[in-house]
């Protein structure tokens, strides 16, 4: 569910920033554009997950809505559809500016998503004995991985200690978002750098 919540919050942030920057004249077109981006992001994340799993396996509707999304798929879908939506809707805001604002929205989305990853135990790091290492509950992805690797017995209720990789990525995303928000830079190059950094972190989850 954190994926969907993250996407929605990210789009809300984008909408607020665009409207604050004088895009009131095309308010409804911007809302339509952001809605299209949300649909594309959700569809792309789900499709990427299906391809990665080697095919679609139907689960109950609640699981399909709350799980089985992959952020790289959302990134690819938005990058492909945003120029098309901008051309069709003509919201009155430069495409480069929308891309930059999208980077901030993506930061917000990824913070929510990484918190969800940490709670679920997905996207975990390698085993470590560092003081801030984390254990995950039985049945979680790291627990299964550690049982399979012979690091812990199946009877144990917690995984071995592992790097909280999700928190590392979350901190990196917050730093990127703070930089973009503080400097208010409007440049496709800045968007590209931020998006690349977030996509690289998401590829491990």
SSE inventory with pairings:
Layout: H1 2-20, H2 27-52, H3 61-66, H4 71-89, H5 95-120, H6 141-148, H7 165-183, H8 188-202
Helix pairs in contact: 1-2, 1-5, 2-4, 5-7, 5-8, 7-8
Overview of the molecule:
This protein has 205 residues and is mostly helical. It has one domain. The chain has helices spanning 2-20, 27-52, 61-66, 71-89, 95-120, 141-148, 165-183, 188-202. Helix 1 (2-20) packs antiparallel against helix 2 (27-52), helix 2 packs antiparallel against helix 4 and helix 5 packs parallel to helix 8. The chain is elongated. The chain starts with a helix and ends with a helix. 38% of the residues are buried.
Shape: elongated
Strand content: under 5%
The tally of helices reads 8
* DSSP, total strands: 0
> Alpha-carbon distance between the termini?
15 Å
Unreliable residue runs: none
Tell me the Rg in angstroms. 19 Å
Number of individual domains: 1
Helix-residue proportion: 55-70%
Average of per-residue pLDDT values = 82
The chain-level structural class is mainly alpha
Q: Major beta sheet, specifics? A: none
What is the N-to-C succession of helices and strands? HHHHHHHH
């Amino acid at each position: 569910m954190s994926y969907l919540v993250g996407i929605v919050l990210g789009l809300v942030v984008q909408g607020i920033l665009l409207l604050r920057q004088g895009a009131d004249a095309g308010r409804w077109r911007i809302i339509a554009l952001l809605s299209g981006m949300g649909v594309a992001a959700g569809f792309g994340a789900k499709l990427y997950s299906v391809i990665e799993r080697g095919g679609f396996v139907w689960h109950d509707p609640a699981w399909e809505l709350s799980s089985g999304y992959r952020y790289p798929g959302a990134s690819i879908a938005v990058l492909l559809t945003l120029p098309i939506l901008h051309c069709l809707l003509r919201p009155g805001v430069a495409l480069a500016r929308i891309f930059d604002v999208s980077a901030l929205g993506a930061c917000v989305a990824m913070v929510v998503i990484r918190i969800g990853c940490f709670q679920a135990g997905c996207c975990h790091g390698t085993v470590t004995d560092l003081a801030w290492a984390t254990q995950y509950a039985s049945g979680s992805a790291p627990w299964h991985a550690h049982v399979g690797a012979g690091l812990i017995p199946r009877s144990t209720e917690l995984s071995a200690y592992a790097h909280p990789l999700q928190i590392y990525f979350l901190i990196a995303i917050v730093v990127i978002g703070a930089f973009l928000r503080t400097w208010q830079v409007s440049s496709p190059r800045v968007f590209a750098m931020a998006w690349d950094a977030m996509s690289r972190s998401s590829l491990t989850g």
